[in-house]
Design goal:
The chain contains 13 helices and nine strands. The chain has 303 residues and is an alpha/beta fold. The chain folds into two domains: 161 residues, 3-Layer(aba) Sandwich (Rossmann fold), CATH 3.40.50; 121 residues, N-(1-d-carboxylethyl)-l-norvaline Dehydrogenase, domain 2, CATH 1.10.1040. The strands form two sheets. Strands 3-2-1-4-5-6 form a six-stranded parallel β-sheet, with helices on both faces. The protein is globular and about 65 Å long.
Length: 303
């Protein structure tokens, strides 16, 4: 079933660019905005219409979607004072939030948008920019069934799986739990790799043996060998791992639970970011360990 509504899409990064590409391939009318003119030009070459402002999108599009950096960025563009576009929207329009944010953000957006008669949809995603480009991300939806069914034809243009997690707020909570587990796994295998390298272990055997036993994981499958090949392409940038785990830490504290592991993982990414690795892939956290050990963790040169 085709999606007939007009979509305004803000954020053409690794995930957003792929989503827009697949919407356009499936015949969806899309207006776009991004701070990077080259990304805007690429979307325009694929058939998107370029918007001059978020307020323009709010006035002309049925669905206003965000896939940008932080909760604060979404709020500034939507509900904050003079900069927010909510005042330009009409009752019944939809704000679709694909950004990985926080429980406080989702609760606030739901309340403020609801008071204005605008429907707020939280729909964080899992998987990578490669999956976005291929049109097979996972969408985690939190909210009522009616809105999900209205948006399902749109999600179908770029998602392989659409999970109705529960009421509004549950999707972002599950996304943050997922991301904490995933990034904690990355931090742990990077620490292990760094120690193995410092002690002179054969890194080929290290990853082969770990991957054949209980240490195997989805993140190691995605990034383990790339790390030892010194490939730190930012499919998921380290700075965004730091951001997501930070949201998780604050949520955990608010829930009244101890967060010893979460705090340690967050501090690990924060240190790596402070040391200048924030723009690289999340496994560049290993470079912080290497700075301290003086030994590079890599496959043997002749392997």
């Amino acid at each position: 079933m085709a999606f007939e509504k007009v979509v305004g899409f803000v954020g053409l990064g690794g995930m957003g660019s792929g989503l827009v590409k697949n919407m356009l391939l499936k015949g969806v009318a899309v207006h776009v905005m991004d701070l990077d003119p080259k990304k805007v030009e690429l979307a325009e070459s694929r058939g998107a219409k370029v918007a001059s402002s978020v307020s323009e999108m709010a006035r002309t599009c049925d669905v206003l979607a965000f896939c940008i950096g932080r909760a604060e960025d979404v709020q500034k563009l939507t509900i904050d004072g003079e900069t927010g576009c909510l005042k330009d929207m009409k009752p019944g329009q939809i704000i679709l939030d694909h950004t990985t944010t926080s429980p406080d953000h989702v609760d606030l957006m739901s309340k403020v948008c609801g008071n204005a008669g605008v429907r707020y949809c939280e729909a964080p995603m899992t998987r990578t920019p490669l999956h976005a480009d291929q049109g097979c991300v996972n969408v985690l939806y939190g909210g009522d069934t009616d809105l999900l069914e209205e948006l399902r034809p749109l999600f179908d243009t770029y998602a392989e799986n659409i999970f109705h997690v529960g009421p509004s707020g549950h999707a972002i909570r599950l996304k943050l739990i997922h991301n904490f587990i995933a990034f904690a796994n990355v931090a742990s295998f990077c620490e292990g790799f760094a120690l193995a390298a410092k002690e002179g272990l054969d890194m080929t055997k290290v990853i082969d043996i770990i991957s054949a036993a209980g240490g195997k994981s989805g993140m190691m499958d995605l990034y383990g060998r790339k790390t030892l090949e010194r490939d730190f392409t930012p499919y998921m940038a380290l700075e965004w791992a730091e951001k997501d785990v930070g949201y998780y830490v604050r949520w955990l504290e608010k829930a009244g639970l101890p967060g010893f592991m979460a705090s340690s993982v967050h501090q690990t990414y924060s240190l790596a970011s402070i040391m200048g690795f924030g723009q690289e892939g999340c496994t560049a956290v290993i470079k912080a360990y290497e700075k301290l050990s003086g030994v590079e963790a890599a496959f043997p040169k002749d392997s």
